[in-house]
Amino acid sequence: MNNHLVYIVFGVSGSGKTTIGRLIANQLGCDFFDADDFHPQVNIDKMAAGIPLNDKDRKDWLERLAELLGQIEKGQSVVLACSALKEKYRQALIKHSQIAIQWIFLEGNYSTILNRLSQRTRHFFKPELLHSQFNDLEVPEYAIRINVSKSKNKIMEDVMNQIGLEKNKVGLIGLGVMGKNLALNLATKSTSLSVYNRELKGLEENIAKDFCNENKELSINGFDNLESFVYSLSLPRKIFILVKADVLDQVIDQLIPLLQENDIVVDLGNSQYQLTRTREQKLNDIGLRFLGCGISGGEEGALNGPSIMAGGKKEAYNAVSEYLKKIASKDKSNYPCCAYLGSGGAGHFVKMVHNGIEYAEMQLIAEMYQVLRKLYNLDPIGISKIFAQWNQSELNSYLLGITEKILKVKEGKDLLLDKILDKAKQKGTGGWTVQAALELGVPISSISEAVMARSTSSMKNMRVKLESIYRFNSQKSDSEFEEDELAKAYKAARILNHIIGFEMLRQANSQFRWEIDLSEVARIWTKGCIIRSNLMEEFVSTFKNLNSENHLLQLDQVSENIRTSISSLLKFTGHGISYGISLPVFSATANYFNAMVESQSPANLIQAQRDFFGAHTYSRVDRPEEEIYHTNWTI
Ligand code: 6PG
Asked: How many whole angstroms from its chain centre is CA 134?
């Protein structure tokens, strides 16, 4: 987008030279000078007293400006706002200049300009002088003429078009680690890009400009001025936002007045799906388009290819899908791991469920590690070896792979892991999944237990105290360690955890009237995202052509796999718990399975209890379910 020129924005006082000049300089990322700042005090006093400047007054002033322009070297750009009304002034201005000059004349009729001038309060120029300015004005043929009787937005559109600056295709707001990596990902896929980061004194300074300087070889323009950032984008604008959740609405509100009909705002953060719905509605109502896209893959994924889950209007997705697909990871057939999942927050809903599964997958590995270390006395290096073997098998997953590495990392002679405080933090997505499941009435016990396990972990001080009161048994197992059995238990727990997550999506489909294709979700989760695994690859075919009425546990491939591993899970869980190991997610998957395959549950007793103390009524097995009954239970 960079042309290297001196741009002189000229016209009578009040035509908007300073404002427009500054905006152009922002677009170009170059210095801006205002000729008014170069007037000697005598000139300022004269103008303030309502006395027009004559040629003699302007001579020294023009000379100072000419010297300034003479110092601009080739390869540099600079913008100067200067009245430059007469041809001889213009010639005087550029007499030392070595590089091409682009003259931009801001044109407006007398009454428009007078009207503007009378609204300016803090300026030394007196509106009465306007007449003399119009008298002096000689408009050259070589200048670009920009009519200023329009909005600033339109004026800048005209300027950018006329000076032939090519606009950038995509804009990205928010240069945190993820934002920077996504920007690099976009720019290396030959997308011309504008990036914006706010300026916060002492906290976030020069982020965008520094980022561009560090990546000069890429086509990126950096802005700390939101307006200039917006003007630098081609229509309809495509603006990706990656900012912290607490400032997202503020950023959107700042953007709205700068945007034009059909521009597209894409939230790439981890947002709550209900808020995405509200934002989509709000922007659609004013003629703008909005997409809520979940992205997964952490920092590395953002740079090399994340998995992308898009939600919003299909035509909005179509307008940006080219760029999303470019940056997404590629599946084993080289198709982008990016999919349109539906309207109304569907993308962020799917990302939220991804994170729920992620929480439980992490916790399962942590629980297995705990069993191996505490119950079977293995050291982390030994555990790492087991995980490495498993990772060569059907149990392969990204999370198991990173764990295998983590377990070997040392700090001096000690394992780094042993120096990490055992309090797991959370940013909320796991909890949102639990809330959403409660609203939908879907059991997701592996995920809720994983969230609760993080909460329990945070009670470190209390756990230490309570251990000294209650922990009296040895936690070493007296039975043999059977790796094969452990692997099977882990396999069954993982399948069940995934079934729980995908079931939540299936139920959301029927309750929200979405048509999320579970096979497609599995496909875009095969590469790039945090829960990518061999199992996910299997699910792509397992979930093809589903009957939406059927529970996923009814699928043949699922039941075959569970049948051969479930007894190991049940044994493992019982054994571990009996030795005092906390296995919330393993046992949640075991309990989920036991409960789901139990045709007669004890819930009839719950119903009876409810009816006993609160006359809450019950249905009978020997009558239609809609009929309700109440009994006076007191005998
Ligand atoms: C991903 C991750 C990512 C983030 C988690 C961490 O898919 O790339 O899920 O979104 O790292 O949300 O969440 P917690 O901080 O809550 O563990």
From this structure: 51
d(CA 629, CA 608): 10
Determine the pLDDT at residue 122: 59
Per-residue pLDDT averaged across 296-308, rounded? 97
Is residue 454's pLDDT more than 80?
Answer: yes
Q: Any idea what the Cα angle at residue 478 is, between residues 476 and 482, rounded to 5°?
A: 95
User: For the residues 87-92, what does the mean pLDDT come to?
Assistant: 92
**Residue 331: pLDDT above 60?**
yes
Q: Distance from CA of residue 629 to its chain's centroid?
A: 52
560 tagged catalytic:
no
Tell whether ligand 1 has an atom less than 6 A from the beta carbon of residue 454.
no
Alpha helices, DSSP H, located in 423-542: 429-440, 445-457, 460-470, 483-512, 518-524, 534-542
Given CA atoms 105, 109, 112, 117 in this order, what sign does their dihedral have? positive
- The pair of three-digit structure tokens given for residue 382, joined into one six-digit string: 């030994």
Q: What is the mean pLDDT of residues 574-579?
A: 94
Rounded CA separation 584/581 (Å): 9
User: Ligand 1 center to residue 181 CA distance, Å?
Assistant: 16
How many whole angstroms from 525 Cα to the centroid of ligand 1?
14
Q: What is the Cα–Cα distance from 143 to 156, expressed in whole angstroms?
A: 16
Mention every residue, 6+ apart, whose C-beta is less than 8 A from residue 512.
342, 344, 346, 349
> Does the structure show a pLDDT above 90 at 165?
no
Catalytic one of 313, 351, 491, 527: 351
Whether ligand 1 lies within 6 angstroms of the CB of 329 is answered as no
Q: pLDDT-derived band of residue 3, with 50, 70 and 90 as boundaries?
A: low
Inter-CA distances, 151 with 108, 146, 148, 258, Å: 13, 12, 8, 11
Q: Does the pLDDT value for residue 506 go beyond 90?
A: yes
* Helix H or strand E segment including 132: helix 130-136
Average pLDDT estimate for 561-565? 97
| C-alpha radius of gyration, the chain, whole number | 33
CA–CA gap between residue 251 and residue 245 (Å, rounded):
10
pLDDT of residue 121: 63
**What is the maximum alpha-carbon separation in the chain?**
114
For residue 49, the model assigns a pLDDT of 82
**For 472-489, what is the mean pLDDT?**
84
Q: Which fold has domain 355-596?
A: N-(1-d-carboxylethyl)-l-norvaline Dehydrogenase; domain 2 (1.10.1040)
pLDDT at position 214 over 60: yes
- Would you kindly state where each structural domain of the chain is located, as residue ranges? 6-162, 170-344, 355-596, 600-635
Listed as own residue / partner, the contacts of 321-329 with beta carbons closer than 8 Å and 24 or more positions apart are 323/169, 323/170, 323/186, 323/191, 323/238, 324/293, 326/186, 326/189, 326/191, 327/182, 327/185, 327/186, 327/189, 328/524, 328/528, 329/297, 329/301, 329/304, 329/305, 329/527, 329/528, 329/529
The pLDDT confidence band at residue 54, using thresholds 50, 70 and 90, is: confident
> Are both 6-162 and 170-344 of the same fold?
yes
- The yes-or-no verdict on residue 2 having pLDDT over 60 is no
Is 43 close to ligand 1, i.e. is its CB under 6 Å away? no
Could you give the angle at which helices 534-542 and 483-512 cross, rounded to 10 degrees?
50
Q: Is the pLDDT at 123 greater than 80, yes or no?
A: no
Hunting for tokens 């981890």 — which residue is that? 270
The CATH code of the domain at 600-635 is: 1.20.5.320
Amino acid symbol at 207:
I
Protein fold of 170-344? Rossmann fold (3.40.50)
Q: Is 95 a catalytic residue?
A: no
Q: How is domain 6-162 classified at the CATH fold level? A: Rossmann fold (3.40.50)
**Which is it for the CA torsion 419, 423, 424, 425, positive or negative?**
negative
